Amino acid sequence: MAITKNEVEHVALLARLKLSSEEMEAYTEQLNAILGYMDKLDTLDTGNVEPTAHVLPLRNVFREDVERPGLAKEKALAGAPEASEGQFKVPRVVG
Amino acid sequence: MDYEAVIGLEVHVELKTNSKAFCACTTSFGAEPNTHVCPVCLGMPGVLPVINRQVIEFGIMTGLALNCQIAPFCKYDRKNYYYPDLPKNFQTSQYDLPLANNGYLKINVDGEEKRIGITRVHMEEDAGKLVHVDGPGGGYSLVDYNRAGVPLLEIVSEPDMRLPSEARAYMEKLRSILLYLGVSDCKMEEGSLRCDANVSVRPRGSKTLGTKTEVKNMNSFRALQRALEYEIERQISVLEDGGKIQQATMSWDESRGITTVMRTKEEAHDYRYFPEPDLVPIEVDNEWIERVRKSLPELPDERSQRLINTYGLPQYDAQVITSSRDLAEYFDQVVAKFPDAKVVSNWIMGDFSRLLNANNLEPQNSPVPPEQLADLLQLQKEGTISGKIAKQVLEEMFKTGKKARQVVEEKGLVQISDADALGKIVNEVISANPKVVEDYRNGKDKALGFLVGQVMKATKGKANPGLVNKLLKEQL
């Protein structure tokens, strides 16, 4: 199954990546190589194999419902490119 | 042409856990922005979220109360989209293996019972809150992540509803069940219970579905009903004009009373779900399910049936009273002291509920405790006060928090049942109204009512009405 440049463009848009046309070419090629390997895997008979939900053989790892103080507001905002009135300030997005 | 609507609801409910879904931050509402956050719910690199066990418990309770199958195996997935209310750029949710599926709940509209299918109940997390600020260059948005990571259940119905009133009844019933379970405080105005509707129309009798729109932003039961009524009318008029429905997400504008387009299908999201590698899968065995099942409280339908069977209440009364667990508790406590259940239900559905609403109170914090309402009804039953006075006394009890007997004594409201004392007043009324008396003697039965009214007025409503009637008739 070959991946087209259009699909790479779509995925780039979804991931909010701005790609040059050279990059677009390069990624199309690389993604095709990866998906080509998937085609190889597809030749295996996996009819009796359970789909993998997680790579670790662990189930039911829980914490009890106990609250603890989190970060001080100043610390929480320390990594924000911009902050105002104790809040993260971002370009206006209406969704 | 005659059309019918097809409606399905997606409900999001915030769970009443102490801590968030995957970290130990508090879930309490209304704090200063960004004070209930930590590296996990802020989506910092390298953190490890861990599932809150109580979320699974609440999820199983809800699934069972909605008659669902609980999945023996389920997992979390990442739902990817870019919007600043999600610090991680994905929402932790469940995709192909939800916690519960295939359930139903029963609604009752205009005396007719209907089963609404529940497709699935899955667990996810809430997002942060954005405030948009106008300014040069398009302005900016401020983000508060206190709510990010608060556990949510998403409850998806089958497209089984045909009328806005059914959608409203479904929502009210669901809220009532969730409140009985104690899994959420279900405050629509605070956003802890939210609902989106999928709605389409088709010629009545048709088996195929029309193109649907999704309606968002309905913040009350009334808004839900109005928005659906509007959207159904809008779709029908598009079709009648020979147009086509465009698949779109619509937003309900409460003040203008219309739905407007938020986005069309072309802009629809592509969420690229994949299994959440930071959280391990969940297995729920029968032992766990049975333990939760045993812990379930009596639910609205069972409780309503119990009131009908035990007290012979009409179905309508039983439903109104059991719609709220607190109101049903209150009823049970009054009936324990004053066993005439129908009288109790009349008062609770009538004046008591009216006074609660007028004072914006819940039954459990009413200034009139159940035993005091029982006392008031007892005073009325004994004939110490009339029904009319009882209503006044209840208002006074609400206002002052005083006991029924105290109000009656202080205000001198004891019913006058003394034939001599009343006889005097009756005679005065007769001699003061010769014309009405003549009308009555000439066969105008209505005139008697006027004279009774005059006696009640003279006694400030304290006269025993039965006795007044009797005395008047004797004198005339």
Question: Could you please describe the fold and organization of this structure?
Answer:
- Chain A has 95 residues and is mostly helical.
- Chain A has a domain at 1-45: Glu-tRNAGln amidotransferase C subunit, N-terminal domain (Histone, subunit A, Orthogonal Bundle), CATH 1.10.20.60.
- Helix content of chain A is 39%, strand content 9%.
- Chain A is flat and about 55 Å long.
- The model of chain A has no long low-confidence stretch (mean pLDDT 90).
- With 476 residues, chain B is α+β, with helices and mostly antiparallel strands.
- Chain B has 3 domains: 3-288, no CATH class; 312-410, no CATH class; 419-475, Orthogonal Bundle (Arc Repressor Mutant, subunit A), CATH 1.10.10.
- In chain B, 40% of the residues lie in helices and 21% in strands.
- Chain B is built from 15 helices and 17 strands.
- Chain B has helices spanning 53-65, 164-181, 221-240, 286-295, 300-311, 315-322, 325-337, 341-358, 370-382, 387-400, 404-410, 419-432, 434-441, 446-458, 465-475, and strands at 3-14, 51-52, 69-70, 73-74, 77-80, 90-93, 100-109, 112-125, 129-133, 140-144, 151-157, 193-203, 213-216, 248-253, 258-264, 274-275, 282-283.
- A 9-stranded mixed beta sheet of chain B has the order 3-7-8-11-1-12-13-14-15.
- In chain B, helix 2 (164-181) runs antiparallel to helix 3 (221-240) and helix 14 (446-458) packs across helix 15 (465-475).
- The longest helix of chain B is centred in the middle third of the chain and has 20 residues, at 221-240.
- Chain B is elongated.
- The relative contact order of chain B is 0.10.
- The interface between A and B is large, with 36 and 54 residues.
